[in-house]
From TrEMBL:
Entry superkingdom: Bacteria
InterPro entries given in the database record: Aldose_1/G6P_1-epimerase (IPR008183), Gal_mutarotase_sf_dom (IPR011013), GH-type_carb-bd (IPR014718), LacX (IPR037481)
Source organism per UniProt: Latilactobacillus sakei (Lactobacillus sakei)
CDD domains, alphabetized: Aldose_epim_lacX
SUPFAM superfamilies membership: Galactose mutarotase-like (SSF74650)
GO MF annotations in UniProt: carbohydrate binding; isomerase activity
Protein name: Aldose 1-epimerase family protein
GO BP terms: carbohydrate metabolic process
């Protein structure tokens, strides 16, 4: 495990999957990141796919390649590139295992930087191929709700920073695995771009917000603490907690890419919302977590 810290926060990162396993408030002595048993993860990195692919596979020039849910990064060991007291970067290079799923040479570098009460997350992809690279990328942090055991899950609310009046999400269907239906729905009970949290709103699974968001904030009148996300370069935000578990956590997930529409097995180059990186080029996408 690696650790970075400043006066306010301590962050622990597992080199397997480059997964954040802890973000700890040093001043008030509590944990922000989910540590429970109902979902055995903390903040997985999603690459080069998000969600389920139809038949757990996709096509390249008509040839089928297997693709696990959320890609293959979670089981891969990243190597340490750089580390200071308040920052680090971890790198994954394409290898025999990744090439079975994704026949391209790439480097994926996950960077974390602390600044006061903020954690800045950056994913950098180096395309080592002589052709376009198509991929999705997501970050999947799960946060304890209630924060610092203050109040209950239903005492919290999400506020969306968007220029639009309505908050829309992609309808999810289960087969039993979750896919998009291809339809958009309007989020109910939204007032002043704020929606109260309930476990019931996740009965059908994840909520992928379609609006272009700049920021979101998780707050409660029962707590002096809050969690905010500046979405930065990411197109979508997903909200999720484990269905039917009444679990005290909420995932706030920046997405660049989308799960498949059910029944629509796709060529990689035509996957909706994928990032397209030109040959030999490098791209960085990032967002910031803000803890109060």
């Amino acid at each position: 495990m690696y650790r970075i810290e400043n006066e306010q926060l301590s962050v622990t990162i597992n080199p397997v999957g480059a997964e954040i396993t802890s973000i700890y408030n040093k001043e008030d002595d509590f944990e922000y990141i989910w540590q429970g048993v109902q979902w055995p993860k903390h903040a997985p990195v999603l690459f080069p796919a998000i969600g389920r692919s139809n038949e757990d596979a996709y096509l390249i020039d008509g040839q089928t390649y297997d693709m696990p849910q959320h890609g293959f990064v979670a089981d891969q060991h990243f190597t340490l590139e750089t580390q200071t007291t308040t920052s680090l970067s971890l790198k994954l290079v394409a290898n025999e295992t990744t090439l079975q799923y994704y026949p391209y040479h790439f480097e994926l570098i996950i960077g974390l930087q602390l600044a006061a009460d903020q954690v800045h997350f950056t994913a950098t992809v180096n395309n080592l191929e002589n052709q376009d690279l198509s991929f999705s990328f997501g970050s999947h942090p799960a946060f304890n709700v209630p924060i610092n055991d203050e109040g209950y899950f239903d005492d919290y609310q999400i506020t969306f920073e968007t220029p639009e009046d309505e908050v829309r999400y992609f309808e999810i269907v289960k087969t039993p695995n979750p896919y998009r239906s291809g339809k958009l729905c309007t989020l109910k009970h939204v007032e002043n771009k704020t929606v109260p949290l309930t476990h019931k709103m996740f009965e059908k699974g994840l909520l992928i917000i379609e609006n272009q968001l700049s920021e979101i904030k998780l707050t409660s009148e029962k707590s002096e603490h809050s969690i905010g996300l500046d979405l930065g370069d990411f197109k979508y935000l997903t909200l999720w907690t484990k269905e039917g578990a009444d679990a005290p956590f909420l995932c706030l997930e920046p997405f660049y890419g989308l799960p498949d529409v059910v029944g629509d097995k796709r060529e990689l180059t035509t996957k909706e919302a994928n990032y397209h990186l030109a040959a030999k080029e490098t791209a960085s996408i990032g967002y910031t977590m803000i803890f109060k």
